[in-house]
Amino acid sequence: MNILAVDTSTPQVTAGIVRDGETVAEKLHLDARAHNEVLVPLIQQCLTDSGVAAAELDAVVVGCGPGPFTGLRVGMATAASFADALGIPCYGICSLDALADGVGDELVVTDARRREVYFAAYRDGQRVFGPAVAKPADVMELLKEELAAEVADFTPSHARGSLSHIDQIAGLEVAAEQVFPTPKAMVEAAHFDSAPGPLVPLYLRRPDAVVPKAMR
């Protein structure tokens, strides 16, 4: 299978072609303000580098966040457009799943802005909590409360994602690694054994826009 992978949930724009579990082309661009400008050119370059024609793609995988509204909208709309135009399925994944390394108890953390973080907890690669959004000072207490009954003795041994935001989490003293989604990890996080459902962005916040009082 030739799979196009796209993610715009973090400051990095990720595009790549994965064939039978191996990355054959990958383009990464680190600029939180350039998602809209660079994504399609990166996809086109990946197709050229891999020697895969668009018509030879079998599926698209796209990160659905959590992430900022504008970034997610760019990636998901682009991925859905490619899939629709080619008549192939588009699989949405939780972008944090592509950051977990699948070993032991771990925490994945990314920037949610507004002095908050997106996070999820994993045990041996399986998400046991999240995705969620909270202030860094509240993350460990939330995990303790939510996982006490379902996941015994959850104790993260390491954390991955945005290093600067991991460092802000109160009470978390573990080895930390700066990572962004990769095409291969995204494809590994997708579930191809079932039909893809609708793409649902994981904003995790209510919209900022409100209906004016005069229109209510």
TrEMBL record:
Gene Ontology cellular-component annotations: cytosol
Biological processes per GO annotation: tRNA threonylcarbamoyladenosine modification
All residue ranges annotated as the Gcp-like domain in the record: 32-150
Source domain of life: Bacteria
Pfam families attached to this UniProt entry: TsaD (PF00814)
Coiled-coil residue windows: none
Name the record gives this protein: tRNA (Adenosine(37)-N6)-threonylcarbamoyltransferase complex dimerization subunit type 1 TsaB
Gene: tsaB
